[in-house]
Amino acid sequence: MQNFSSYLIGLIAVALIFDFLNGLHDAANSIATIVSTRVLRPQFAVAWAAFFNFIAFLFFGLHVAQTVGAGIVSPDIVDDFVVFGALMGAIVWNLITWGVGIPSSSSHALVGGLVGAGVAKVGASAIVWNGLLKTSVAIVLSPALGFVLALALILLVSWIFVRRTPGGVDALFRILQFASASLYSLGHGGNDAQKTMGVIAVLLYSHGALGGEFHVPFWVVIACQAAMGLGTLFGGWRIVRTMGSKITRLTPVQGFCAETGGAITLFLATALGVPVSTTHTITGAIIGVGASRRVAAVRWNVAKDIVVAWVITMPMAAFFAATFYALARFAA
After folding, report:
1. Where do runs of H (alpha helix) occur along 235-299?
2. Hey, which of 105, 181, 255, 300 would disulfide with 37, CB 3.0 to 4.6 Å?
3. 184-217: per-residue pLDDT in tens?
């Protein structure tokens, strides 16, 4: 019984480490625009984002956690080795991309990890194809929706304030960007933290600790939100630079439109229970506001490198997860 408790506690700890790294890795998604427009200094921006990351559970249901916990691989095949492989695959890929400053998706790294470890155990029958297809489609739709919404918002705002002086508009949107950054951080915390909730919940389910019915205990919700908030406090400055200035230069108006467009996308996805990538979403929105000026305003070579990272994230995380699953089984 002692071994059982030790394994379970250890895996929950690994899951929370992943959640912490998710906040660390994806901090740029919440703060890149507000930092690059110099509305907030970096140290204040991360504290601002961390607070709204943490309180996100007050505003959203747990639909995304249900999808990740029971809608990517069958809960019946999940055991300690599958969870360990999935988490380690996602963590390794997150550390690699964080180290080189590539804003890849922690969400899809975790999904890829679950698929890789599940397939390594029982083959393709482990996959819940409906849930995986929904998540895969979101890889394309979330940045596209973020792009369209941000582009529409910047055009609408430009039309509304066409007679205002640039200085007056800039001052107004420096204030409004506090609201848009808060909304985006809420969306980030609401969608991303739920992925780890789903993993911990399915782990508890596999140990018979949920009374035979899959659900997410409240203590898991609080622990995951806190771990993500702490990760955000430590920031990810290399990725902030890529997101906030390398793709395109942003003004407060553009930052507001990018964050608002991204937040709307995340709110919709979370309500539908779709585990989307906050990285994909804000990148699409930033490209949208940049393209509103002129196509040349977007550094398409940087955007291309980010897209390549998106494409390879799930298979690379799956590969690492399958490897860690096999090593864990061998060591046991």
Report:
1. 237-241, 252-272, 278-293
2. 255
3. 889 888 888 898 999 999 999 888 888 878 889 9
